[in-house]
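Subject: two folds for Thursday's group meeting

Dear M.,

Sorry for the delay on this. The cluster queue was jammed most of the week, so I only got both jobs back this morning. I'm pasting them in the order they finished. Each block is the input sequence followed by the predicted structure tokens. Could you check whether the formatting survives your parser before we put anything on slides? The first protein is the one we discussed after the seminar.
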Amino acid sequence: MSFFNELNRRNVTRVAVAYGVAGWLLTEVASVVLPTFEAPGWVLQVLIALLIMGFPLALVFAWVYELTPEGLKKESEIQSENSITSHTARKLNLVVIVLLVIAIGMVAFDRFIARDTTTPAAAVTPVQQAQDDGAIPSVAVLAFQNMSTDAENEFFADGISEEILNLLADVSGLSVASRTSAFAYKSKTLPIPEIAKALNVRYVLEGSVRKAGEQVRVTAQLIDAETDRHLWSDTYDRTLRDIFSIQDEIAAAIGQALQVRLLGDEGNEVRAEAIDPDVYTRFLEARYLLRRRHAADMQEANRLLIDVVAAEPRFARAHILLGECYLLNTGEGALVEPKIGLALANMHASLARSLDIGLGGIDMILGNIANENNDPLAALKYYEQAIRLEPEEARPYHWRGLIYTTLGYRDRCSQDSEKALELDPQNPNVHYALANCLLMSPEDFDRAIELAERGPGLGNPGGYILTVVAEELRGDRAAALGHLLHYVEEFETQNEGYAALLAHWQGKDAGEPLTQEQLATVDERVLLFRGETEAVLHRLTQDGLQNNVIRDLWADHYSELRGDPRFMAELEAYGAFEVWRELGPPPGCQVSGDTFKCQAR
């Protein structure tokens, strides 16, 4: 008897087929069920790995053993006339047929029935009621789960969800939560209604991405957070070259469910931008690396984006991202020197503008460049244009608020920072900026402390130092000391400046003055807290404007320092006077001939 015939006689081939079909069904069911229970991506990966490892074991088991009425027995111990393999074969054939019918039914349901039975927009009465009340539907797009066996494909899952978010953000009839806030809930197992409440949205889009070579599976579901029910869900099995049509179809389904036409501000239909899929994958990876803000990752992102724009020179968004890379990638190991980086960032922003004049990210880059070049007036105008183009984008409000804080405009910085917080409520840097702004006025210290204390929980431990600042400005040294002790112990054990300040406040240094070497290295806030105001003003004249220090000096507590000519000289060098001439001087300052002067309050 041939080896193949022996495999058939022992039902090894039937076991192989049954195992394969059953494993496929189990994987398909798990890929749908696991995201519903918010299981991490590795659960499906482990399941697939176990099924693969179990396959050869099942074949060996079928070869060695035979199922008899008395139970499992080794095949070698059974006489041929007592073997019932033919009877077992009929049972296995039946099992395979049943499994195949179930598999065909699942495929047919997924392809034809499920997609046609999506809840029609007209039947979603809460949406219609919201439209009748004049409310604009608000949506958050959470980071999609990476269900790929390769964990390194996480950038692709993040990238696809961000692309869908950007696509929806361009729709004039939708309010979309910022990426920073929405992605803050990545890998967190919180109920959807709780997430929606924190993000101030009604609807939440979540999903998963599984990529294997050129094959891509994207599963997405839209949830009404008020009822905690699905409005729509679907699964897309395509090749990588169809990834843009998947994005369009998901956006269209959301638009249908929420009864919103996918039109931009200019009245044109919003659609995904299609480029070469391989180049697009590199773009997604570069953006993912840039978001991590680690020096090595930003350098790699820089290299990838150079390749992307070389391959797709008309890809405007890649030019914007490359410009952002050059702005941020200025530390040790940067590809170019900071001045050259600014010039290259400006060049790529200009190229992007020539390709797509309507992209708001261009003005944000140009605004940052203008601010770096000590032209805050131009920076403010760029941010204003960015806000006109993308009114739901938090960053231009945030950055404009920082400039207003540096220039002493307490009301303006508060207004912009409050707006940024409304648009991006989970961004720790926005909390930090608003707290810094509020420290200008003693009546806002409580709110400043509240905002600063939220920052560390959102990923910015610098908020603890703002609580120290607020308590010290308020005159509560004991509270300031408590916050500083916590900060030094938990976050800045290697920061000699804050450790020295802690020793000073605890009386451990007997009030000894800092050495010249210490004066040259410690943080300006440490100098202010120690009363070394002369050293602060001297450093300003030596090192130029330090925005964090200037923002602190606008607090009432330091108003007398603002009358020092050195303080005013630095503001003039920064370009503050040009802004003051156009907007008027901030509180506490006034025109004095051709210049300005600021007095103690």
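Second protein, same layout:
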Amino acid sequence: MRRLLVASALALSAMAPSFASPQAQTLKAVMHSDLKALDPIWSGAYITRNYGYLVYDVLFAVDDKFQVKPQMVESYTTSDDGLAWTFKLREGLEWHDGQPVTAEDCIASLKRWSARDSMGQKLAQSIVEYKVVDPRTFQIVLKEKFGALLEAIGKPSVVVPFMMPKRVAETDPFKQIDDYIGSGPFVFKKDEWKPGEKLVFTKFQKYKPRPEPASGMAGGKVVSLDRVEWLTIVDPETAINALLNGEIDMIEAVSADHLPLLEKDKGVKVMRYRTSGQYVFRMNWLQPPFNNEKIRQAAAVALNQEDFLQASVGDKRLYKTCKAMFTCDTPYATTAGMEGLVEGNAAKAKQMLAEAGYDGTPVVILAPTDLASIKQLGPVAKALLERAGFKVDLQSLDWQTMNVRLQKKTPPSDGGWNAFSTSWSQVDILDPLMTPFLLANCDKARAGWPCDAEVEKLRDQFARASGDAEKKKIAEETQRRAMQVVTHIPLGEWYGSGAVRSNVQLREVLPPVTSFWGITKK
């Protein structure tokens, strides 16, 4: 079973020992972004994923040792030929509306998830059928072995295969759901939701934690909080002051500029993350000028990692340049295909634009105004591309509105876009099968919609590969091809931080995603 290096550059664990006092508690948190998209299958935003972990549950989860463990599943078996997998759900699982969780619910959820997720799509290609054995048991029948089956349905980050009621999971995967019933440890209080201001979650009284101790995203999700409030405070200074004054309990993402102030305050604990996130630049293949491969290549030559990292992080202790698509110091790290790229060679990029026949078509870059970790990426991209001869229109908007707009395939003049920058956690980009932006299956790919049969062929080969040497070779070939057609451009790695009040008890080993089960306040 493949080991996963799990870390979220934007995630702060909020977990504590399961023997915490049952006294009623409320935790007020400022997350890294406001939440507008409430469908964690439709949206790839990390804030929507974090929301998903409160409201929904999963069949399998990753523990502290990066191993996939049963969560909603009680037991599972595999046939001798490895083609039939049988899963039995734990007894007593309920949806928030009191209905039992069934095998049919799980099958419908897996089908919807697999339409949107990079690993899920490859898994779906190997599936002959799903079978309902009884209300708590179902099978996945394969036409060929899929070595990463458990890793796929147990992946901890975007897109997480959250389980939903059958009626909800049957929603078109390319449309948002409007029914937010889950079976997770918290209930979303839609009646208290004030968009742009506050979200409220309350403890699901009938949730049945697993008997094992909490470990990573796996184990017993023991809830000690009666209520969790996500408060939207856009201004970082205001949020920092609220934390220092005890008006809030947690800030999920803290900028490097604020760390010295927080580290001096005895009422606050700063959490530094040990693994990185990766900044990336993503272009829209459907609209000019980036429907032209040579112009995408020119952009890769024009951009410069150091400029993005300096502007977004600044502190050299908290970032590093890295040309590895699957991040540095990991099993599939390679610089193959990255020669001469992301070094800010404006002269060469300008020459490439002329050879490609660039006609001055404006590049509409979307940039968030309210997400400190990536808000500087857009302005840097604009400056570097303009230096190389591109005409750029930088359009700023809030992160959640931007995520909605990114789903539009229309021209920029009709509400569409040409490019944007974002950040992925290492947990999402460790290999060719997992990396969301490597999907190159045209209209089924993530926003940007790259379309390249060779990339997809290599990802298929990786899914079937058995040995480490073979996988490494395919990963290198995949990166080389991906940078030739430019599915996306790595912009370097960075390390995030978060902070909580000193009276908030945290676990020693932080899980990869912000979690609210097990947290206590003194």
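Two things I noticed about the second structure. The first helix runs from residue 46 to 55. The chain is about 25% helix and 20% strand.

Cheers,
T.
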